[in-house]
Structure formats: structure tokens, C-alpha cells
Specification:
heterodimer; A: about 300 residues; mainly alpha; MetI-like fold; 12 helices; elongated; B: about 300 residues; 2 domains; about 80% helix; globular
Amino acid sequence: MAVTTEHSQLPSPSLAPEPKALSRLAYSLFSRTSTIFAFAVVVIFVAVAVFAPLIAPYDPLAQSILRINKLPSTANWLGTDQFGRDVLSRMIYGSRNSLIFGLISPVLAAICGTVLGVVAGYFGGIVDRVISRVIDLLLAFPELLLAIMIAAVLGGGFWNVIAVITVAFVPGFARVARASTLAVKQEPYIEAAVAIGVSTPVIIFRHVIPNIAAPIVVLMTLWVASAIRLEASLSFLGIGTQPPNPSWGNIIRDGLNNLFGSPWPIIGAGFAITCVVLSFNLLGDVVRDVLDPEISE
Amino acid sequence: MARYLLLRLADAIPTVLLVLTLVFIAMRILPGDPAIAALGDMATPEQLEIFRERMGLNAPLWLQYINFVWGMLTLDFGTSLMNNQSVLRLIAYNLPYTIELTIVAMIMGVGVGIPLGVLAATHRNKAADNAVRGFSLLGYAVPDFYLGALLLITFSLNMGLFPINGGGEGFLDRMHHVFLPALTLALVKAAFIGRLTRTSLLEVFGKDYIRTARAKGAREPRVIYRHGLRNALLPLTTGIGLSTLATLSGSVAIELVFNRPGIGKLLISAISERDYAVIQGGVVIFSLFVVLINLLMDLVYIVVDPRIRVQ
């Protein structure tokens, strides 16, 4: 027990970036117009999602036969859809879906992927062979195709979509975690920990995981954008967020089913997806450049 | 060469078996009762029993597994629950449209992407480079189905230049139908391939043999294409392979946007109709395609870089 107490007094490398990394992050973030713009978009997006009930002018589900297929006007800024629902309100509520899926899925995938990757990388042998083989196979599939195939089996709905996006991302995290674990395992401090008799779980949680955290965090931020896009695609395909609940993807789907009505639902929701994904991509690049300079271009 | 080919082919067999096993686990074991998963909670016990009988779900699991793998390998995908057609026939009807879309999109995407990348790499940090960078950032962000919907509204609906649905009859008509869907996918591809070409070219341009080529007086186009691009081909091959896979998955949404026949559309409507046999067939076909494209990628490698053969 004495050993572990001594360890905890050392300045242990932790998940949170050091102050220096934070200030570097802030510097790279605000030194370019494009990333300031991206940061602003993300702040607005999060604010809209959080305060949706306060901002939305109408109930996103309220149908009105009197207001079908209206073009944009002062009453309905983006017009109404084929059920007379206010498109802007639906988009505002739809942002909640994107935010939730965009944040939860990469985090869950990072946890599952890290566990798999670390187990495979640290223990090696037959466990590694089995995990690696399945991971390699799944990595051969594009995330969207994998997600479509899993959703085909599971069906839509909130928890299924979370599961689908998470599973689609797990192989990527597992590969990175495994590769990093293999590298970290060679380090003298692991050998030292083994030599003084630190138990395996403690080695994994205290020495391996903190040292492979950087690439995992980088991947997580890069995949927020992918997760938002993936949720939109699945909802567009009808296997994500189920109507009548609004999601940017199914707003576009409804718009396409109503081609001769108003094009504004499609234009508005698609523009929102593009801006938010672009912004998260730009911010993800910044985080990558600061935390993990080796893998930047 | 022949040995390498055989080795790669032999390696694909366990991969296919593993894919089929994963599909089997996902469809038959994970949902608990696949009959309820397929028909929904509202199904009556009689319906469930009929479904189990038809799908062979009353047999022990190991026998189901053998039947499943054997069925898939002999291309016996069962019959559609919706219209009693054989799933193989449905796939055979839809597959050519998806392949056509993927090929045309890839030709267009590579045809636009590589020149864009060369342009960006040869005009590094100038206006052209920035424009290509902006284009690829946008291409990474814009969802393909949104781009497709915009093109459809603009060129088909408002200007009437292209059909708004269907796959077409005869070569010219089919090309007319496939143009906009393929263009949609190609623009997204071009963003990716353009950026990749730029990165790989810039790396190659830093090499000694490029300086040698210039020093001995080779003309610039020769340096760029003969010495530069030729050596940037290996990373590009990987990129193009990945891009083909992405095109395949993108085709699902695009077939829906342009309302054209294809495996993606077949799969998506099967999901909404809970047509279990068609879902299973569609998932297996997509998986086999992924394995096949990966195999082709490996074969292209040895053409592009003969050194790989030796290893």
C-alpha cells in the first residue's frame, strides 16, 4: 500500500491538459479568423440547443392545416412544412438531438474502444489476436455503412441510435488505444511498476491510460463532427431519430418528401448541419495540433 | 505475383466467414428473439410462429448458423416477406444501378480531385491552394444528401435539365439519370482526393529525386506528373480505395434523394417494411462488397508499387 501512496504524491500525468497546453489551445484558437468563427458557431449552437424552449417561437410538433407549406415570412422565418409546423422551431429543437448524439456517442465509443484496445495491447496473445482481427475487419467498413447495417438490425429510436453511432466508432478508438498501449508498454516506467509489484489493474489505470489519453482525446474531438453528421444521415434515412421528433436529418427527409412544397426546410437544416460540422472539424484540428503535434499534417 | 494473388485470395476466405458470423450474431443472437425484433411488439403469436417457421428459427442455433452460412455462400438469400420475390432476384435487379452510380461517381471524383490536388500543390499557399483548401473543408462538412437535394431542386426541379427519379433505360438515358447523383458523390470525393493528392505530392516534392529531375533540366510538367504524381500514387491508392467504400455508403442516401433503384434503397425500404430476409441479404451484400474492394485495393497496390510483391 505504501507504494501507491508514494505514487499519488508524484505529479501524475492526468487527463486534463496542463495549464501550458490550455493557454496554447486558447492561443491557436483565437489567432485565426476561421477558428474564431468556428468557436462562435459552436457557442451559438450549444446555446440554442440548451435554451431551445425559450428561443423557439412555436411548438415544434404543433400542426396546423391553415399554415401548410408557407414560404418564409415574418411570422415563420423559415416557413412551414407539409404539416404546417414551424420549420425554424423544428430546427431549434433539432439542434438538441445533434448536440446530445454529437457529445455522448464519441465519449461512449472512446470508453469502450479504450477498454478493448488496452486489453488487447497490454495482454497480447490470443485475446489480442481475436480483438484485433474483429477490429481490423470492422475498420474496413466506413462508419456510415457500419451504422446503417447495425441500424438495419436494431431499428431506430434514441438508445438504438446512441448504440449504433457508438459501435460504429469503437473500432477506430480501439485501434489507436491498442497501438498506443503497445508503445507505452515498452517504457521503463511500466517495467519499473511491474518490478516493484504494482498490480495489473493499477498499472493499467494509473500508468497506461493517462499516457495514451492524448490521442484518444484528439480522436474524440475530431469525431464530434462525424457523430453529428452520422446522426443526421441516419435520421435522413429514417433509421435515426423517429418522427415526429425533429432532427436536422429528418427535417431534410420531410422536405424531400414534399419537394413541390417549400425548399426552405432542406436549405435551412442542411445549412445548419454544414456550419456546425465545419466548425467542429476546425476546432478538432486545433485540439489535435496542440495536444498531439505528431499526428498533425 | 501469382503466389501473392493466391495468398491474398486465401486470406479473404476467413474474412468472409468472419463477416457472415458477425452478421449472424447481430441478426439472430443479439436481439434476443429475432422474430419479435423483425415483426415488432405488436405481432400476434401466430404471426411470430409463421415467421419462425419460414426463417428456420425453430432449429437449434448451430444448425441455423450452418444453414445461414451455407445459404449465403450458395447465394440463397431466401424470399422477401413483402412480395414473395426471391431476395437474390431483388438484389440482381438493384445491384447494377448501385455499381453504375459508384463507378461514375469515382471516375468523376478522381477526375476532378487529382487535378485540384496538383493545382494546390504546385501553387502552394497561393490563391489556388487556398481555394482548394476551402473546397475540401466544405466537402468534409456538407452532408452528401443535402448537396444532392440542392442539386436536385436546382437542376431537376427548377431548371428541368435532369430527371427527378428513376434509373433510366438504355445507355444514354441511364447516364442522364446517373449524372446528378454521381456528381453529388463526386464533389464530396473530389474534396477528399484533392486534399490527399496535395499532401502526398508536397511530400514527394521534397525528395531528392525531384531536385535531380529539375537539375537535369526536365520540364516542369514532366517533373510533376512523371516523377511527382507517379510516386504519390501509393498513398493515393489507399485514399481512392477508402473513397470508393465511402461512395458505396454514400450511395444509400443518394439513391433515396434521387429516388433511384439500388441496393441502398432496397435495404432502406426493407427496414421500414421489416422485411427480414431482404435486410439480411442487403447487409451481407454490402459486407461482401467491402471485403471485395479491400481485396482489389491490395491488388492495385502491387501494380502501383511492384516492390510490394517481393515482400
